[in-house]
Specification:
Glutaredoxin
């Protein structure tokens, strides 16, 4: 079974360029719900990284700095080490990456 990590970087405050979009945390929860309807989620773990919080992990710290330095739109979604969305994610792109990594789809009943 696949062991995949989906990471969402974001903030509670909606991105200034993303007026009308859901918050990063809402997007994080929406992704979990959407993925659980299509896949066996035993092989996936989720993490939410608040870009306004102090980061202990060097990998997250470096990427949060990049978000601010490059004015990236958030939320930013990673499947493993692949950035699959900047701003509002498209499920098709997320699903493709999960498929490519071998996450098992649920059987239609």
């Amino acid at each position: 079974m696949a062991n995949i990590t989906l990471t969402v970087y974001g903030a509670d405050q909606v991105c200034a360029s993303c007026v009308g979009a859901p918050s990063s945390r809402d997007t994080y929860e929406w992704l979990q719900a959407a993925i659980s309807r299509k896949y066996d989620t035993d092989g996936i773990s989720y993490q939410y990284i608040d870009i306004n919080a102090q980061q202990e992990d060097e990998k997250h710290k470096a990427f949060v700095e990049r978000i601010f330095d490059e004015n990236l739109f958030y939320p930013i979604v990673f499947v493993e080490d692949e950035m699959v969305a900047e701003g509002m994610p498209k499920l098709k792109r997320v699903y493709k990456e999960l498929d490519d990594l071998g996450l098992v789809q649920l059987q239609e009943s």
